[in-house]
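Good morning N.,

You mentioned wanting to compare the apo and holo forms, so I went ahead and generated the holo version with pyridoxal-5'-phosphate. This is what I fed in:
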Amino acid sequence: MDSQQFREFGKAAIDLLADYMDNIRDKDVLPSVEPGYLMKMLPENAPEEPESWKDVLQDFNQAIMPGVTHWHSPRFHAFYPTGQSFESIVGNMLSDGLGVIGFSWISSPACTELEVVSMNWLGKLLGLPEEFLNCSDGPGGGVIQGSASEATQVGLLVAKDKTIRRLLEADPTLSEGDVAARLVAYTSDQCNSSVEKAGLLGNMKMRLLKADSNGRLRGETVKQAFDEDIAQGLIPCYMVANLGTTGICAFDPLYEIGPVCNEANVWLHVDAAYAGAAFICPEYRHLMKGVEYVDSFDFNPHKWLLVNFDCSAMWVKRGYELVNAFNVQRIYLTDTDTNVKVPDYRHWQMPLGRRFRALKLWTVMRLYGAEGLRKYIRNHISLALHFANLVRSDDRFLVEPEPSMGLVCFRLMDGDSTTKLLLDNLTAKKKLYMVAAT
Ligand code: PLP
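and this is what came out, ligand included:
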């Protein structure tokens, strides 16, 4: 393909997507296809000879589109939202157009530095303590991970490395394997599946502690769990607090959990994947009271801040602890030798390669402005309250618990089996898509 064809193909694709968004409301939110439909439609082998881009777009319309679940339909209410905006799509396109891999500063200086700047902007918008920002005097900073799952995993691996180093330094007769086998991670039984998975992947026992009746994990529960484990010779190492649980969007009290973790030398990570975006509005920041106790904090602009997947914003108080844990040297991977605080981001993440993800985040922040983003969040929350009032006005339904952020949980007064039947019927009609919570 030459640059002229690229212009034509690109413009046709943008027209197609603009039409898609203009008409998305008219589509069923769920597709009417059976498992295997696309595998049957497409050839078994890649073409030997190049085909025309027009044929590709035609197949996109005829074969791909019928199998798409429309996450950006106004009738899509399942899971949590996934961010999208025209601004972000174009930001992403610019990143794809450059096609750089920014694992170290020299591998593309702008890729690293725009990420530093964008993460400072975003951290300030959220009202995070200065210590998390690269622009402060300390060793803190932000990094864009691919997902909240990765951020939780990174936190766990760094906590593990840090705890092992600390204990071996204090007692060189200990073996690394023995310490590693006794480490324990904690979170609430309301955590997202990805948190439990971090324990599996990081080979660390992960205890799901019981949340209270409001879905919040309390400080005294955490303290009790640490004490029980210490009494058994185990070593508390990593704690994931949730700001906005997946089921009911509950907020763990950091001001209770934080002091307990700090006292016990346990790394405290915050998973605010969805609800963290709301902290750009000062009126919701009380929900992160105690954030000063936290070691790492993560939320997903790709969920609720108009940035397309993938863009998970993670801040840490001490960037050098990530470098300690993840630093593997090769002759072809020179580190940046500078007095300026410029991270070599390959040490801050699991993969080596990394995309220029800051471009879409920066584009969105510039083209919406902080006030535009706040308006977007506030509008979602007021729509949720409006919907909850509509549901409440029908006495067959109960809204429970109180709506939190953009999330409304409701059920039929008749009980779980009727509620499930209603959900199944709605799903079968494909007009609305919601999911169950317990
Ligand atoms: N944490 C919470 C609270 C979530 O709700 C989700 C997804 O819904 C995740 C983590 C996983 O996010 P990601 O897909 O970015 O890993």
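The mean pLDDT is 95.

Happy to go through it together on a call whenever suits you.

Best,
F.
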